[in-house]
Design goal:
Elements lengths: L8 H9 L3 E7 L3 H12 L4 E4 L15 E2 L3 H5 L3 H17 L4 E10 L2 H18 L8 E3 L1 H7 L10 E10 L1 H14 L3 E3 L2 E9 L2 E9 L5 E11 L5 H5 L14 E12 L7 E5 L8 E6 L2 E5 L3 E2 L11 H14 L11 E10 L17 E4 L5 E4 L6 H14 L38 H6 L6 E4 L11 E3 H10 L5 H8 L2 H4 L1 H19 L5 H16 L3
Parallel strand pairs: 1-2, 1-10, 2-7, 4-12, 10-18
Antiparallel strand pairs: 3-6, 4-6, 5-6, 8-9, 9-10, 11-14, 11-15, 11-16, 12-13, 13-14, 17-18, 19-20
The chain binds flavin-adenine dinucleotide.
Length: 538
């Protein structure tokens, strides 16, 4: 196994300074932009990608962590969408088995008819998956439901249904996409914002990007520019216009989804709990993930697009109340270890009045402007690869890119791909897949900054080691305490107070690795403010 290639920032910035023309420039390093960059690089295009913050710092690190076909879209009769997602689910699981795995879900029923009703729908889901199915749907009696979901509310339990979908570590999958694209020759930079679009005779010919750490700006030439900035696409579309032209109509209506993380004791075992219809008609999950349980989510429209959205008090109340109805031990506010929020980039139909997010499209949208700017938004994490193919097809159809055959990423293993331990277990060395061997050679491999207390599932190698911080700086482009504790390790998402506790030790190691370019005091101050938000509830 060849050790991974280091990605030192000075060398990446030097490549940005080269006078050259890129075939493709991607703005945004979430699931969508990284998927596009990887697909294009794998087809041999010269690709550059920038993210103003960190890879997956936006919505792509805040998903419910499900690699799924979207059972509820089936209920809406959207067969095509479900079939495509099931196909993509299989590709994600096959290409990154250390970061994405199958997971069994149990839907408990408290009314007899529910078991048969939902069971029939889920058998149709199996049929659509065909040979890509992950396991058969089964109708369960109440005893079996209690066995599989030891934390379930037993009072009035009539039975349930077990079905299979997938789960993943979203931020680490994003990093694997970035590093795989880099291994194919793409240049990717985090903490580097697109600040202007370059035009010639009304057509986009490149962009200006600014390194947010040094302040240096770079004018890049590119044959095709992709705006893959998620809920921020309208801000980039606003850069694309003649001076003095009227502002463009926004296409994104943000809607926020809150997740609360609690101890695994509330829902022990290896199964996720799924409630298809809560009191207000939403779906609620209790998902075992990296040694904890994720409860969520909500769907609350908002009219601002903020970097660190916070939950509204009603959303916390809603999740805790609903979880309390289905779990034997109801979680309280004081049990919440971390609360985080993601913004859905829902695309507005033309005549939408902007306040009913449930009526908006959850499929992705690709727009090609008169200037040639390609904007992509919407969709879901699971389908990032299909979205990327679609974006490149559109760019080729418009003559912005040379025609080259697709289908190159469906069977392309991502960096680190190797069979891993279940993602329900505490985080540790197993998340590094085939790179765990390199990790163990770094200084501090047995110096644990945080040890996972994971009810006996993790054992040796679980937690956050000093070597993992070094790995993050050398190979995973981490530049800040937040980059390490929110996305290379997921400790901020799992237990915000523990993340606060280990932050100074992380900063010390980053300083050793990154040298004087790393401003330890600022990074720690910013992280403390961030973690405070995850640790406290409104
Ligand atoms: C609560 C919630 C739960 C979800 N759960 C699931 C799930 O379980 N499974 C699933 O498949 N999908 C799920 N999704 C959907 C999925 O997370 C999103 O569809 C996906 O992450 C969107 O990725 P993106 O790259 O389009 O956007 P983002 O991840 O937001 O990426 C956009 C990036 O653009 C960058 N950017 C913005 N402006 C600039 C600029 N000027 N210059 C450079 N960079 C810029 C940002 O920093 C950001 O990193 C969920 C979504 C939400 C909100």
């Amino acid at each position: 196994m060849t050790p991974p290639a280091p990605l030192p920032r000075p060398a990446l910035l030097a490549r940005l300074r080269e006078a050259r023309r890129w075939d493709l420039a991607v703005i945004g390093g979430g699931a969508t932009g990284l998927g596009v960059a990887l697909d294009a690089a794998a087809r041999g295009f010269a690709v550059v990608l920038v993210d103003s913050h960190d890879f997956a710092q936006g919505t792509s690190s805040r998903a419910t962590k499900l690699v799924h076909g979207g059972v509820r879209y089936l209920a809406q009769g959207n067969i095509g969408l479900v079939r495509e997602a099931l196909q993509e689910r299989a590709a994600v699981l096959a290409n990154a088995p250390h970061l994405a795995q199958r997971l069994a879900f149990v839907m408990p029923s408290y009314r007899l008819w529910e078991t048969g009703f939902y069971g029939a729908g889920l058998k149709a889901y199996d049929a659509l998956a065909g040979r890509r199915g992950l396991g058969p749907t089964e109708l369960l009696g109440p005893g079996r439901v209690k066995e599989l979901l030891p934390g379930v509310q037993p009072r009035g339990l009539a039975g349930g249904v077990r079905y299979w979908d997938g789960q993943f570590d979203d931020a680490r999958l994003a990093l694997a996409l970035a590093r795989t694209a880099a291994s194919k020759g793409a240049l990717l930079l985090n903490h580097c914002a697109a600040t202007a679009l370059r035009r010639d005779a009304g057509q986009i010919v490149g962009l200006v990007v600014q390194d947010r750490l040094s302040g240096e700006s770079f004018a890049l030439q590119a044959g095709c520019v992709i705006n893959a900035t998620g809920v921020w696409v309208d801000a980039v579309r606003a850069l694309d216009g003649e001076p003095g032209a009227p502002p463009r109509k926004p296409i994104v209506a943000p809607s926020q989804g809150v997740h609360l993380v609690v101890d695994r004791a509330f829902s022990p075992g290896q199964h996720a709990l799924m409630v298809p219809k809560t009191a207000d008609g939403r779906v609620l999950f209790a998902v075992p993930w990296l040694g904890k349980t994720i409860l969520g989510t909500t769907d609350t429209p908002r009219d601002d697009v903020v970097r660190e959205p916070r939950p509204f008090a009603e959303e916390i109340g809603f999740i805790l109340n609903e979880a309390g109805r289905y779990l034997a031990r109801a979680p309280q506010r004081s049990d919440v270890l971390s609360a985080w929020v993601g913004l859905r980039p829902l695309v507005k139909p033309d005549d939408d009045d902007g306040d009913n997010t449930k009526a908006l499209s959850r499929e992705h949208t690709v727009l090609v402007g008169h200037s040639g700017l390609v904007t992509v938004t919407g969709g879901k994490w699971t389908t990032y690869r299909a979205m990327a193919e679609d974006v490149l097809d559109r760019a080729m159809a418009r003559g912005l890119l040379e025609r080259r055959r697709g289908g190159v990423t469906e069977h392309l293993p991502l960096v680190g791909a190797a069979p891993g331990r279940p993602l329900t277990e505490a985080p540790g060395e197993h998340l590094y897949g085939s790179e765990a061997a390199t990790l163990r050679t770094l200084p501090g491999a047995t110096n644990w900054l945080w040890r996972a207390n994971d009810s006996g599932h993790g054992g040796i190698g679980s937690g956050l080691s000093e070597a993992m911080v070094r790995f993050a700086a050398r190979y995973e482009m981490a530049q800040a305490v937040d980059d390490v504790l929110a996305r290379r390790s997921r400790l901020l998402f799992l237990d915000a107070r523990e993340a606060q506790r280990v932050a100074p030790a992380v900063a010390t190691v980053l300083r050793e690795e990154l040298g004087s370019s790393f401003d330890s005091a600022t990074s720690l101050r910013e992280f403390a403010a961030l973690a405070q938000g995850y640790a406290s509830l409104p």
